[in-house]
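FORM 12-B: Structure-to-Sequence Request
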């Protein structure tokens, strides 16, 4: 029995590094029976909440301000109504923890996606009674996508090396070290075995990987979860910060566009060669690959 409430019966965290196909996976999980999706509340606290670090970088702060100012100008037809969206300015780490530990009556389970580095190594910010899972993706795919997204949102960074990007979004261990450290904490301090999914496996064998994932978590798997409608209408059922979701609707944003256009998992594209990757990303990739490989070794393996 959940130590907080008889409802919901399951509370699940999906932890990732950035650009790991987590949003499309979250969209997929949105169609599970009785789920409440909560999208990146700890990231919200880390960046935009009262303890956030967005103000430490002028260009990033300008981008956030532009998002906020544009919200009233975005036609409703271009965005979900977001009835459950919250104002990020109130999202302290404690507020987020209390919200995640609250009752969600009428829901079979809660599914939260968030970024491990946003915990700031303060594991006291982790809410109680959650089962922790991890989604990984090969760094050769992640960092070209990550840099492209950040430059799109902050054009002045186009000629700067990736390591000089705002530390609010590019942590010391580039997201992978923080993700691995959290997995170790979950195993050693919380006594939970690692449940790890690789994004390429998920794309190549979605039925096998998703079925095993759900079975391990006590969530009912249905074949209907493997296909869904294009668009962002499902966002209206999510709990998420309004600024982030509306920011996706701006031309210079669009960081969830591919996920919202999706209708299923597509086979992974060919792995980019090192010659195709910006040289400033290669040292970052090389630093993260051993961590990725350690987590990959304990992943759910497709049948």
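FORM 12-B RESPONSE
SEQUENCE OUT:
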């Amino acid at each position: 029995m959940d130590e907080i409430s008889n409802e919901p019966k399951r509370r699940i965290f999906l932890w990732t590094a950035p650009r790991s196909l987590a949003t499309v996976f979250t969209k997929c999980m949105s169609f599970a029976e009785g789920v409440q999706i909560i999208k990146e509340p700890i990231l919200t606290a880390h960046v935009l909440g009262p303890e956030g670090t967005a103000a430490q970088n002028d260009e990033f702060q300008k981008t956030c301000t532009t998002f906020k100012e544009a919200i009233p100008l975005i036609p409703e037809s271009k965005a979900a109504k977001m009835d459950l969206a919250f104002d990020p300015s109130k999202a302290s780490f404690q507020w987020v923890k209390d919200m995640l530990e609250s009752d969600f009556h009428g829901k079979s389970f809660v599914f939260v996606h968030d970024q491990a580095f946003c915990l700031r190594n303060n594991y006291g910010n982790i809410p109680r009674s959650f089962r922790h899972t991890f989604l990984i993706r090969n760094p050769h795919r992640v960092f070209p996508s990550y840099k492209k997204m950040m430059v799109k949102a902050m054009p002045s960074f186009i000629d700067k090396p990736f390591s000089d990007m705002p530390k609010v979004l590019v942590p010391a261990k580039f997201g992978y070290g923080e993700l691995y450290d959290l997995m170790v904490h979950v195993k050693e301090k919380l006594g939970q075995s690692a449940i790890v999914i690789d994004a390429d496996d998920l794309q190549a064998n979605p039925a096998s990987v998703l079925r095993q994932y759900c079975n391990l978590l006590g969530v009912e798997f249905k074949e209907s979860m493997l296909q869904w409608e294009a668009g962002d209408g499902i966002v209206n059922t999510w709990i998420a910060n309004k600024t982030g979701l509306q920011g996706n609707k701006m031309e210079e944003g669009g960081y969830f566009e591919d996920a919202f256009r999706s209708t299923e998992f597509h086979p992974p594209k060919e792995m980019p060669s090192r010659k195709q990757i910006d040289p400033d990303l290669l040292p970052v990739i090389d630093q993260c690959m051993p961590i990725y490989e350690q987590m990959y070794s304990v992943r759910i393996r497709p049948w």
